[in-house]
Design a protein that fits this description.
- The chain has 320 residues and is an alpha/beta fold.
- It has helices spanning 2-11, 29-40, 42-45, 61-77, 98-117, 127-140, 144-147, 166-175, 192-207, 211-240, 248-253, 256-269, 276-288, and strands at residues 20-24, 48-55, 81-85, 120-122, 153-154, 157-158, 241-242, 245-247, 291-296, 299-304, 307-312.
- The chain has two domains: 2-216, HUPs (Rossmann fold, 3-Layer(aba) Sandwich); 243-312, Chorismate Mutase Domain, subunit A.
- It contains 13 helices and eleven strands.
- The termini are far apart.
Length: 320
């Protein structure tokens, strides 16, 4: 497992000598293995290591027990630790689920820890997490970006365990006499990810015992393809740029994959969710070289005078 971590760090240029890295430490096997590996490799990689733990206060005494365990774990290894206590239920936004609120607050804590230590943030996503994510994306319907799975590097976030299976992290903990805690919610089939973890993946392993490794290889290959297409799309976008938008005649000639990405990027730039339906509607008016599409509330896509662009238009509705 140590070799797989070093391979991931080098392949994706995750860390350089002199970097500081903060490990998101929940207390589970994956995160404890990650913290121990980073601590063990600190001299070899020339890095400094810290950790942060987030108590979501959603599981009562179990949440507090996890926090106490993490404090003890870091004290024994002399790893600097930041602990954040958050009130997820009290911070719920309108139309926001408990899971969404927890994720939002968690990333705010990660940002605080990163700023304090001037570090990159290492999360303990494994090859299993990646496989589960890909399967979830397939079930919901996805393109190449979804098939690429969890990105090994995203901004200041790094995933050094992305080539390691969950079984390997648990074995690493056993061989190195590392204790860890188990989140009881991970054992309940109450959400899509847990059902995929406990039911779908074991079934797929009956067809291919190495299905996790197979999905890992696939996501790496798809990610390379996706990066190339994204790079070409940026070049084409610059070539098609005209005034406030893009030359619709040149967009019309592009491959669907490139055109899709340019339109998606333009929608995002105007705070419009780039759904496949909206992008298809934009493609229709680009094909006709004239038209107007209501994307959402006051935002529209237009093709006028051979230019495709997105703009805002306040609608006045008269009551009958």
């Amino acid at each position: 497992m140590m070799n797989l971590v070093v391979e991931a760090v080098k392949k994706y240029d995750m860390l350089k000598a002199g970097d500081a890295v903060t490990v998101g430490l929940s207390g589970g096997a994956d995160s404890c293995a990650l913290a121990h590996v980073m601590f063990t490799l600190r001299d070899e990689l020339g890095i400094s290591v810290s950790a942060c733990h987030i108590n979501h206060n959603l599981r009562g005494a179990e949440s507090d027990g996890d926090e106490a365990f993490v404090r003890k774990f870091c004290a024994e290894l002399s790893i600097p630790l930041e602990v954040y206590n958050i009130d997820v239920k009290g911070a719920l936004g309108k139309h926001e689920s408990l899971e969404e609120a927890a994720r939002r607050l968690r990333y705010e804590c990660f940002e605080n820890a990163r700023e304090k230590y001037g570090s990159k943030l290492a999360t303990a996503h494994t090859a299993n997490d990646n496989a589960e994510t890909v399967l979830m994306n397939i079930i919901r319907g996805t393109g190449t970006k979804g098939l690429a799975g969890i990105p090994p590097v995203r901004g200041y976030f790094i995933r050094p365990l992305i080539f390691c299976s969950r079984e390997q992290t648990e074995e690493y903990c056993r061989l190195n006499s590392i204790d860890y805690v188990t989140d009881s919610t991970n054992l309940i089939d109450d959400c899509t990810r847990n059902r995929i973890r406990h039911k779908v993946l074991p079934m797929l392993k009956e067809f291919n015992p190495s299905v996790i490794e197979a999905i890992t290889r696939m996501t790496a290959a798809v990610a390379d393809d996706e990066a190339f297409i994204a790079e070409q799309s940026l070049k084409c976008a610059e070539e098609c740029r005209k005034g406030i938008g893009y030359d619709s005649r040149r967009l019309k000639e592009l491959s669907p994959a490139v055109k899709f990405r340019i339109i998606a990027s333009e929608l995002k730039a105007h705070d419009v969710e780039p759904t496949r339906l909206r992008i298809s509607q934009c493609c229709e008016i680009i094909e006709k070289e004239f038209g107007k599409v209501n994307l959402c509330k006051n935002r529209f896509a237009y093709v006028r005078k051979k230019i495709f662009y997105v703009g805002e238009e306040v609608q006045n509705y008269k009551s009958r």
